[in-house]
């Protein structure tokens, strides 16, 4: 199992290292990478896995409750560290839960686990973009979450899946292009990290 885990993690770190080197060499070109990751790659992989492996309302509720418990505990503990409260609270609650874990989930446990990872990332991004700034600054910022294409991808993927509509029903040429994007999304996202 350790060898398998190492084999799953190593490619991720190689891709991140290549992205790091690229970022050091071509700093001004990073903006394009970020836009492609945010507006194309993350939504594609999110939509596809939510559409293929539709999480039940129970799964979504359990993730939400689990994250809420973690959020509440971190908030209470952060109150003990008044001078570093924002750093402590943010570091405990809002982690980079997505792109780094996607290939590991996929390699070790398959696509169904990746779909659950997408759900976890969504809950994390939703809380991190709305409740976290509200508790730190005292202002609820729902508009931040509405700007994320990730939100629409998860809602559409899940909604179409529940309705029995699969992206796999697309015409052959369109489906091929979609699958190419889906398959290159995770490596691209790791380059961007």
Automatic annotation (TrEMBL):
GO terms for biological process: transmembrane transport. InterPro entries: Mem_transp_PIN-like. It is a multi-pass membrane protein. GO terms for cellular component: membrane. The keyword Nucleus does not apply. It is found in: Membrane. It comes from the Bacteria. The chain crosses the membrane at residues 6-25, 37-54, 60-80, 87-109, 115-136, 148-167. Signal peptide: none annotated. Keywords: Cell membrane, Membrane, Transmembrane, Transmembrane helix, Transport. This is Transporter. It comes from Fervidobacterium pennivorans.
């Amino acid at each position: 199992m350790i060898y398998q885990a190492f084999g799953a993690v190593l490619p991720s770190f190689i891709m991140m290292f290549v992205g790091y080197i690229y970022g050091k060499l071509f700093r001004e070109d990073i903006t394009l990478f970020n836009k492609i990751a945010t507006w194309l790659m993350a939504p594609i992989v999110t939509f596809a896995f939510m559409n293929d492996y539709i999480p039940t309302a129970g799964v979504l509720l359990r993730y939400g409750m689990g994250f809420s418990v973690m959020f509440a505990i971190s908030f209470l503990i952060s109150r003990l560290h008044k001078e570093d409260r924002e750093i402590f609270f943010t570091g405990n609650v809002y982690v980079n839960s997505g792109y780094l874990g996607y290939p590991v989930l996929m390699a070790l446990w398959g696509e169904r686990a990746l779909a659950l990872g997408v759900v976890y990332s969504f809950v994390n991004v939703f809380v991190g973009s709305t409740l976290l700034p509200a508790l730190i600054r005292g202002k609820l910022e729902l508009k931040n979450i509405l700007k994320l294409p990730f939100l629409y991808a998860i809602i559409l993927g899940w909604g179409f899946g529940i309705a029995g509509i699969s992206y796999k029903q697309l015409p052959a040429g369109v489906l091929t292009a979609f699958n190419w994007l889906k398959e290159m999304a995770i490596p691209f996202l790791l380059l961007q990290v």
